[in-house]
């Protein structure tokens, strides 16, 4: 009889544990379920921001949309941090501009591009080399990390919409991460 009880004990313990874990999962899921009120607030906030953009040009809308994706878009950094970021961006853009062709553009440490992933680097290279956009301005703002600042580069080309590129600059290792872009018109691509 004692042997039968020992054999039944593990399945009973496993069953009880499954019930407890299942109950905990349900409790956590119910607590994390978003309420309808925040969703309605986000919807009204979005519609009010769309209304405020109605009087803006396409370039102004694109710039504002990208700027508002930054962590602290309206908090400027010290002049020395901004200068360090701007110099790195200018060096990276000069490197891309003078590359023999697109296939020669690499995410190199020497040109501050080792944090920029392939697709973003290719897009930036096409905008500069193939489409002929020129770096016009750089805005630098604070981020949530002490060793990182965020930037928006404005690229211009006569007769075309501006092209905006945002990203991060790590001050400690002097590297750029071009991460998101918006705008431009008639952007074409090529291989080579």
Through-space gap between termini: 81 Å
Mean pLDDT, to the nearest integer, reads 80
Give the fraction of residues assigned to helices: 40-55%
User: Reading side by side through the largest sheet, how are the strands ordered?
Assistant: 1-2-3-4-5
Low-confidence stretches: 33-48
What overall geometry do the principal axes of the alpha carbons give?
A: elongated
Structural class: alpha+beta
Major beta sheet, specifics?
A: 5 strands, antiparallel
Q: How many helices in DSSP terms?
A: 5
Return Rg in Å.
26 Å
Report strand %.
Answer: 15-25%
The number of distinct β-strands equals 5
Order of helices and strands: HHHEHHEEEE
3D structure, described in words:
The chain has 192 residues and is of the alpha+beta class. Helices cover 47% and strands 21% of the residues. The longest helix is centred in the first third of the chain and has 31 residues, at 2-32. Mean pLDDT is 80; it is low at 33-48.
């Amino acid at each position: 009889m004692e042997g039968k009880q020992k054999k039944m004990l593990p399945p009973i313990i496993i069953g009880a544990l499954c019930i407890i874990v299942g109950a905990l999962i349900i409790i956590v899921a119910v607590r994390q379920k978003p309420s309808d009120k925040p969703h309605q607030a986000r919807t009204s906030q979005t519609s009010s921001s769309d209304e405020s953009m109605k009087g803006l040009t396409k370039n102004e809308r694109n710039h504002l949309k990208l700027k508002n994706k930054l962590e602290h878009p309206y908090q400027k950094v010290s002049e020395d941090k901004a200068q360090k970021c701007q110099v790195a961006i200018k060096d990276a853009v000069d490197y891309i501009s003078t590359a023999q062709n697109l296939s020669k553009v690499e995410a190199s440490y020497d040109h501050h591009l080792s944090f920029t992933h392939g697709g973003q680097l290719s897009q930036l290279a096409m905008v500069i080399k193939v489409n002929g956009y020129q770096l016009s301005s750089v805005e630098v703002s604070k981020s949530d990390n002490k060793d990182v600042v965020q930037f928006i580069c404005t690229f211009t080309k006569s007769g075309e919409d501006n092209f905006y590129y945002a990203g991060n600059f790590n001050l400690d290792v002097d590297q750029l991460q071009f991460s998101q872009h918006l705008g431009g018109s008639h952007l074409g691509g090529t291989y080579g």
